[in-house]
């Protein structure tokens, strides 16, 4: 296959090939222009228009775009015009931020005000125009308008690339500045109708004295249909309209129906709509933020992101969802379950009142199934005065799981309470630690089985704790009544009642001399009280 280079550029290369088609499909013509890969939709559309103009066609082959022609002359003219076009448009990267913000707010094709009008010559006509509004369209293009009414009607508009490059940048910068301030107000024209002249005065000033009951009813029904909107009549002479929006045929004027809102309110409405489309769950606005007044069960749903500034007045279950980050200002007034999600970090402004279950973290060859912080178990450590978990402390401990310094020992301890159990067993392997949990005591693993044989209380497996094999830990819960503790003494089981790994609340030991000489030694009441006050442990 012969080939020649013609005014080679960076991307596309505009390499012209003759004869054999460099793709699998039969195509029009024997001369092909390499338009490269990674072209934007705007470029593809424009290349297609230019190819049609010069008797050719554009198509994809693999990851590249090609233009096909029957003569070399047509191909060269196409390349010439394409290079002129590329010099007329801004690079795609200059639109990235604007496109992202427009998508967040749901403002595609919505006219946006420019704080400072952009005055520019239009290339094709040489006419000077002053543009005050811009609507972001598809393919990194914008429609520019001189007046608000033209923007509402989408008429008399000029395409962005018809301006010189410096003026294009001025427009894009103006749109970007507007979108970057969420408090900016925006007038959104939801409809334009033909409104009868006889009812216009009553609509605008509320004077119904000259109207019949039926006419008043028609106006009120119209107002109810657009509750909260502003009505703006066009400055135009009335003209006869056969089917005005209310009443019979009559002289009418164009009436714009406007919603006055802010960018932050539009984002909230967009997020509410997106959330409803995926979950069929309706959120409401309460005190300026999104709110759901019950448990929110999204387990295994297709949700990929939560709305910003959301409060859930109950539990939030995100187990086995595709969510990989939490939104700003998320408040959960119950448990938050993040098991089997891809969340890598926790925002500082997260608020959780119940139990927080974090996803797995890999530690060498081991993987934790979950990592649980419960105010009921460790409220003294993880709960703040306002009732919410201490997220800063939790983040530090959770991040320790992936630090190079963290070493999983033979107890495989991936949870705060189980870490305390391991710390105790390393020092006192023959003593059973009893953790004071709620109205009873818990112990784990081999100790749970040992105590179960004596007290005849069944052992359970807890998914909130892991053993060294990565499976659920064995747990036994002992009632707090004196009878059960006395049975341990009768059966000569050494035990210590604990609220953390460093100190014992009370000790009964006949087997472990180290424990007896340390935590279990006799002491005066004053010494005991002082020790308990220092450790923060209840007596």
pLDDT below 50 for ≥5 consecutive residues: which ranges? 1-10, 363-367, 403-414, 500-504, 509-539
Q: Any idea how many domains?
A: 5
- As laid out across the biggest beta sheet, the strand order is 28-29-27-26-30-31
CATH architecture of the largest domain: 3-Layer(aba) Sandwich
| Global geometry | flat
* Global mean pLDDT: 78
- Briefly note the structural class of the backbone: alpha+beta
- In terms of DSSP E residues, the strand content is 25-35%
Strand element count: 31
User: Class of the largest domain in CATH?
Assistant: Alpha Beta
CATH topology descriptor of the largest domain: MutS, DNA mismatch repair protein, domain I
In a nutshell, what does this entry contain?
The protein is an alpha+beta fold and 539 residues long.
Show the helix and strand layout.
Elements: E1 3-5, E2 15-18, E3 31-34, H1 41-53, E4 57-61, E5 64-69, H2 72-86, H3 96-105, E6 111-121, E7 128-136, E8 142-145, H4 148-153, E9 158-159, H5 165-179, E10 185-196, H6 197-205, H7 213-225, E11 230-233, E12 239-241, E13 250-262, H8 263-279, E14 284-286, E15 289-292, E16 296-297, E17 310-312, E18 316-317, E19 331-332, E20 336-337, E21 351-352, E22 356-358, E23 362-363, E24 366-367, E25 371-373, H9 375-382, H10 391-400, H11 416-427, E26 432-437, E27 440-444, H12 445-455, E28 460-466, E29 472-479, H13 482-490, E30 495-498, E31 504-508, H14 513-517, H15 525-535
Parallel strand pairs: 15-17, 16-18, 17-19, 18-20, 19-21, 20-22, 26-30
Antiparallel strand pairs: 1-2, 2-3, 3-5, 4-5, 6-7, 7-8, 8-9, 10-13, 11-13, 12-13, 14-15, 22-25, 23-24, 26-27, 27-29, 28-29, 30-31
């Amino acid at each position: 296959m012969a080939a020649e280079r013609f005014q080679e550029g960076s991307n596309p290369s505009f390499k012209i090939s003759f004869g054999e088609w460099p793709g699998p499909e039969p195509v029009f013509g024997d001369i092909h222009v390499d338009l490269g890969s990674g072209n934007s939709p705007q470029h593809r559309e424009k290349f297609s228009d230019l190819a049609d103009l010069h008797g050719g066609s554009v198509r994809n082959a693999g990851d590249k775009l090609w233009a096909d022609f029957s003569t070399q002359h047509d191909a060269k003219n196409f390349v010439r015009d394409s290079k002129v076009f590329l010099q007329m448009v801004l690079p795609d990267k200059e639109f990235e931020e604007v496109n992202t913000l427009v998508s967040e707010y749901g403002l595609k094709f919505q006219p946006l005000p420019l704080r400072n009008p952009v005055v520019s010559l239009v290339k094709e006509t040489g006419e000077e125009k002053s543009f005050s509004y811009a609507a972001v369209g598809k393919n990194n293009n914008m429609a520019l308008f001189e007046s608000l009414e033209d923007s509402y009607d989408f008429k008399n508009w000029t395409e962005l690339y018809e301006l010189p490059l410096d003026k294009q940048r001025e427009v894009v910068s103006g749109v970007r500045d507007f979108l970057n301030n969420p408090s900016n107000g925006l007038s959104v024209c939801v409809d334009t109708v033909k409104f009868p002249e006889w009812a216009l005065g009553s609509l605008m000033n509320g004077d119904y004295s000259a109207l019949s009951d039926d006419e008043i009813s028609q106006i009120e029904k119209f107002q109810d249909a657009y509750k909260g909107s502003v009505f703006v009549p066009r400055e135009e002479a009335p003209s006869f309209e056969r089917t005005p929006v209310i009443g019979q045929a009559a002289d009418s004027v164009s009436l714009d129906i406007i919603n006055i809102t802010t960018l932050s309110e539009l984002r909230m409405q967009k997020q509410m709509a997106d959330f409803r489309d995926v979950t069929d769950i309706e959120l409401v606005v309460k005190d300026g933020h999104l709110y759901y007044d019950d448990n929110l069960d999204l387990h295994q749903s297709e949700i990929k992101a939560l709305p910003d500034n959301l409060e859930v007045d109950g539990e939030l279950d995100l187990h086995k969802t595709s969510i990989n980050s939490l939104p700003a200002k998320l408040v959960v007034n119950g448990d938050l379950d993040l098991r089997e999600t891809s969340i890598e970090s926790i925002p500082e402004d997260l608020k959780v009142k119940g139990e927080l279950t974090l996803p797995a973290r890999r530690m060498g060859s081991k993987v934790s199934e979950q990592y649980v912080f419960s105010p009921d178990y460790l409220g003294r450590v993880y709960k703040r005065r306002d009732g919410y978990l201490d997220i800063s402390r939790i983040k530090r401990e959770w991040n320790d799981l992936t630090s190079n310094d963290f070493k999983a020992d033979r107890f495989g301890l991936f949870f705060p309470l189980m870490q305390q159990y391991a710390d105790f067993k390393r020092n006192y392997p023959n003593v059973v630690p009893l953790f004071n949990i709620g109205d009873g005591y818990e112990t784990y693993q081999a100790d749970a089985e040992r105590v179960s044989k004596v007290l005849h209380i069944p052992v359970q497996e807890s998914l909130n704790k892991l053993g060294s094999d990565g499976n659920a830990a064995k747990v036994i819960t002992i009632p707090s009544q004196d009878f059960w503790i006395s049975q341990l003494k009768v059966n000569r089981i050494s035990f210590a009642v604990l609220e953390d790994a460093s100190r014992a609340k009370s000790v009964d030991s006949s087997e472990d001399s180290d424990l007896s000489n340390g935590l279990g030694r006799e002491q005066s009441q004053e010494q005991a009280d002082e020790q308990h006050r220092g450790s923060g442990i209840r007596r």
